[in-house]
Amino acid sequence: MTSMSRLEKKLSDRLESRDYYEAHQIYRTLFYRMSAQGKWQQLQDLLYNGAIKLLDVNEPTSAIDLAELYVESLQKSNVPVSSAALDRFEQLFTRLPALLEKDTTPDGSRVDRRSEFLSRALQWTMAVGGKKRYREKGHPDFHARVAKIVWREGNYVAARNHFILSDDPEKFASFLIDFQQRCGFKSEKDLFIAQAVLQILCTRRAKMAATLLQLYCEKHPEIGGEPPYQLPLLNFMWLLTLCVQLRKVTYFSILVEQYQKCLERDPSYRDYLDKIGQIYFGLPPPQKSAAGGLFGSILKGLLTNKAGTSSSTDSMAEEDSEDDFSDEGAVDEEGYVTAASSANAASPMTPASSPKLNACSSSTVPTFEDGMDLD
């Protein structure tokens, strides 16, 4: 009998005799030996099943440790992200306890016991990511699964952070509606979706942003229907998702100008629109010392285009872009003008004799703020 076989036999005996401390130590010994031998599939089965067994017998601390070793082995062996691997991750993450009784401290501070497990799993999906976005932020299917779990647990802030990085607009829309109705004011139903749309556009996923906006507005009991909407900020977001398909800075500049008062409701919008202007319209980054901010960047972009200088729009927009509308057809200029007219927003093709309609009221309500790294 080999030393490995003896260890496995000893592990079985310890589990049967309920000596779970010793069983845990044997699992760890097997982790190092099987890792050195490259027996990755056998090791991953052993660690996953071991974590489940220890959870079944109410040994959560040891189970958490084996779960962390399990995802570490996934990264070391470069296992690609798959439904089967994510199913196992989800099963463990769902069953592992966030807190233990002994975690209660005098000052009331607590740390989720699954944090290290979650961090290692994220690092695994980043390490094997096939796209730049996956390598930088993690796989979207991983984020979607985490988001749904922590949503069920009532952790809305964490759920939102993971939904932003997922590619599941339907579940994200349902979540945002629930989040707004439970945690926001009635007057903030447009703010919750607006910030999500802007953040997703900043990650070069215009189709995801457009789909999310549509689903949110259709499902929300106080919005419903199709565009144009009664709320000006929703119309701005709708027209913005169309405008980025055209990638014409003139349309963008007029749209932002028309809805300037709406955009003042949340100061973070300016930073998002600066980034969107750079990604989709080739606008220069705003200089902190220069006056004008976003509108200064737009003016500079307009002057550059009129002078005949080549714009960097295409190269910037295509960098790791996932804005493929080919299956449905991107909006054309006529379609955009029709949409803008229906929302009482001006466009470059509005007849000169027509009065410019004010698309946005100046009302201000409390805002929901949640910063996002735009880089």
UniProtKB/TrEMBL annotation:
Positions of transmembrane segments: none
Location within or outside the cell: Cytoplasm, Cytosol
Parts forming coiled coils: none
Keywords, in A-Z order: Cytoplasm, Transport
A biological-process GO annotation: protein insertion into ER membrane
InterPro entries tied to this protein: GET4 (IPR007317), TPR-like_helical_dom_sf (IPR011990)
Superkingdom of the source species: Eukaryota
Biased composition range(s): Polar residues: 339-366
Pfam families named among the record's database cross-references: GET4
Family that this chain belongs to: Belongs to the GET4 family.
Stated name of the protein: Golgi to ER traffic protein 4-like protein
UniProt lineage: Eukaryota, Metazoa, Ecdysozoa, Nematoda, Chromadorea
